[in-house]
Design brief:
Structural class: mainly alpha
Strand content: under 5%
Largest sheet: 2 strands, antiparallel
Strand order of the largest sheet: 1-2
Oligomer: single chain
Distance between the termini: 21 Å
Shape: elongated
């Protein structure tokens, strides 16, 4: 049985079938009514605002249904973000704070070094020069210790973000019975041989459903159906997020360079240089534009 096009068990079906859903400016609606308004071409023509409001509410309902079904199936992982690019935004925030702290450490240390050099050339007594040298050595020791601490905290921050990102990838790319669309599964098992254009239409419909894309790809291969898009979708659906992981790793590597002990590297990848902003923005766009991705 299905709720909002999602295969669910009896408990979830009864829970959501009985609910009334609030639509801004409208009377509460049963789910079936909400689905009709959200997909009706007549409503689109005569009251497009109502249709858009119902579509927005329906997407929220779908997200709630998926969560409820995941909980029933024992899949306790809940993604932090709706989109994979959200984790790149987290890395950008980490970079902003870490690189700013790296630059402040550098400034404070260089102030001490500058003072020492001035005393070396202008100090009136050996005691002045000795004190300045002692201060420089202490500042250098503190600078190295503080920098190592920053690097360790930055690594830990990256790994925490990576943990959420990797969990989301695993959850998205793992096949699940909860994501099977019973009507389409029945169609594929019916013995009817679909045409390539029909397979393409179904692939477009399920581009955020890895389970269905894999099923469609295997059906097309088994029946030797020439399809324009299904091979592309199938390849992406069976990739386990290798491209997304590579994009994440490239941004994380830039952050590591921004807090490195190498002053040149830290300046190139730091907050005051446009390289990181440009490349991390491109990474977010890349993840938003992949053909198979979460869509709520």
């Amino acid at each position: 049985m299905q709720i909002a096009g999602i295969e669910v068990n009896d408990k979830v079906y009864k829970e959501f079938s009985a609910k009334m859903f609030d639509v801004p400016g409208e009377k509460p609606m049963k789910l079936r009514t909400l689905e009709i308004y959200a997909t009706s071409e007549d409503v689109k023509e005569h009251d497009p605002d109502l249709r858009e409001k119902c579509k927005a509410v329906l997407e929220q309902v779908k997200a709630a249904v998926l969560k409820a079904q995941r909980d029933i199936n024992g899949l306790s992982f809940q993604p932090k973000h709706d989109k994979f690019s959200g984790y790149i935004e987290d890395l950008r925030s980490l970079h902003s704070n870490a690189s700013a702290e790296r630059e402040e450490l550098q400034r404070e240390y260089e102030k001490t070094v500058k003072h020492w050099r001035e005393i070396e050339t202008t100090g009136k007594t050996e005691l002045d020069r000795s004190r300045a040298k002692t201060n420089r050595l202490e500042a250098e020791k503190k600078y190295k210790a503080d920098l190592e601490d920053l690097q360790e905290r930055t690594r830990a921050g990256i790994e925490k973000i990576r943990e959420g990102f990797s969990g989301h990838l695993t959850e998205f790319y793992s096949p699940s019975g909860a994501k099977l669309d019973a009507e389409t599964v029945s169609l594929l098992k019916s013995g009817l041989k679909l045409r390539g254009a029909e397979i393409d239409a179904l692939a477009d419909k399920y581009k955020s459903n890895v389970t269905m894309l894999r099923l469609l790809g295997e059906y097309a291969d088994e029946h030797k159906i020439k399809s324009k898009n299904i091979q592309m979708y199938y390849t992406r659906a069976t990739s386990n997020g290798s491209h997304e992981s590579s994009v994440f790793d490239s941004v994380a590597d830039m952050i590591t360079k921004a807090v490195s002990s190498n002053d040149v590297s830290s300046r190139v990848w730091g907050a005051n240089n446009g390289h990181f902003d440009r490349l991390s923005n491109e990474a977010m766009t890349d993840l938003d534009n992949v053909v198979v991705k979460p869509e709520l």
